[in-house]
């Protein structure tokens, strides 16, 4: 019942109810000792947590409703109330229809057993919609055991004043990895990784011509909580620098760039990054202006992901998933 992001009431997301998914049938083996009981039950609840996340991401409203008691009540942070399985199922179905592709993440803070038949779970849910920034809510769920099944009887949410930056930046996790753009007369290579603290993306660009490095640069991408959007700052080896704002439109990212070229000329442009496949990104550059003069036309190319090197044993390295670059001969924005 929680909003994926601010929108009219009819198109709400149900983050709140999504929090209360730990309610599929489970029980203790008759032979379990009293000491083992709580641990076994908590493990079972956490296993169902994972199952609910899958059902939410599949858009299965009926399965989610079945995790509630017949007269279950859910209360959103703004006071909106939903009572009963039928209404819960309809509200989820409306959400999944309006927000196709939304994904949920769960962070359980605590599970407390108040009695043999009542349990309370508290934590945070984070939903990443197909468009826009992730939305986070705190939640409290009361479960009751009915006919040897644990079902949600009460679900309540509270506003989360701030999603941690490391959660926000995961929306751009697809850029992590190594990518190349082979132009007729040059090759651009971009690597992207998370900063050690996980709050930023760090991107490094190298452009070669005839095997010689002719340009390099570095960029840092971050979430700006004041403006509610991603921003980036970059510096190149020739003395140019710039900044940009990033906004999402489905599988496209629109990057509004502005900066100063090495000779002192101001420049701006619009870059559009479109994910055609997990390993291919198309980029286009348009709306170019240098020293107040418009540069006609649009330029662009394709970026191809470099496959990870085969593991020789030990702990395998994570497979890269994407990033973007601009060849030196097309850097008209800086």
From TrEMBL:
Low complexity bias spans: 311-328
Coiled-coil intervals: none
Signal sequence interval, chain numbering: 1-32
Transmembrane segments: none
Gene3D superfamilies from the UniProt entry: 3.10.450.50
Region feature (Disordered): 307-334
Keyword field: Signal
Pfam family, one: DUF4440
Ranges of residues in domain DUF4440: 45-152
Protein name: DUF4440 domain-containing protein
Organism: Aquisphaera giovannonii
């Amino acid at each position: 019942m929680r909003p994926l992001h601010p929108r009219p009431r009819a198109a709400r997301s149900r983050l709140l109810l999504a929090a209360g998914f730990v309610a599929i049938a489970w029980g203790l083996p008759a032979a379990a000792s009293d000491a083992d009981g709580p641990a076994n039950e908590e493990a079972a609840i956490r296993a169902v947590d994972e199952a609910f996340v899958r059902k939410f991401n599949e858009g299965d409203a009926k399965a989610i409703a079945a995790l509630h008691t017949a007269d279950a009540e859910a209360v959103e942070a703004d006071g909106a109330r939903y009572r009963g399985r039928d209404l819960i199922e309809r509200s989820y179905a409306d959400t999944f229809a309006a927000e196709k592709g939304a994904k949920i993440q769960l962070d359980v803070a605590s599970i407390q057993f108040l009695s043999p038949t009542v349990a309370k779970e508290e934590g945070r849910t984070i939903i990443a919609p197909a468009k826009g920034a992730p939305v986070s809510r705190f939640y409290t769920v009361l479960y009751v055991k009915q006919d040897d099944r644990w079902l949600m009887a009460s679900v309540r949410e509270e506003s989360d004043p701030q999603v941690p930056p490391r959660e926000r930046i995961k929306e751009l996790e697809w850029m992590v990895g190594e990518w190349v753009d082979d132009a007729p007369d040059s090759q651009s290579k971009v690597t992207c990784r998370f900063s050690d603290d996980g709050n930023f993306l760090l991107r490094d660009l190298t452009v070669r011509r005839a095997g010689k490095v002719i340009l390099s640069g570095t960029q840092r991408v971050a979430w700006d909580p004041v403006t509610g959007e991603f921003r980036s700052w970059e510096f190149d080896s020739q003395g140019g620098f710039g900044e940009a704002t990033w906004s999402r439109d489905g599988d496209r990212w629109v990057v509004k760039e502005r900066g100063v070229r090495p000779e002192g000329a101001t420049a701006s442009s619009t870059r559009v990054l479109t994910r055609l496949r997990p390993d291919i990104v198309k980029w286009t550059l348009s709306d170019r202006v240098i020293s107040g003069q418009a540069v006609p036309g649009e330029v662009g190319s394709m970026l191809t992901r470099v496959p990870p090197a085969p593991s020789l044993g030990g702990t395998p390295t994570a497979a890269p998933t994407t990033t973007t670059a601009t060849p030196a001969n097309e850097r008209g924005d800086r």
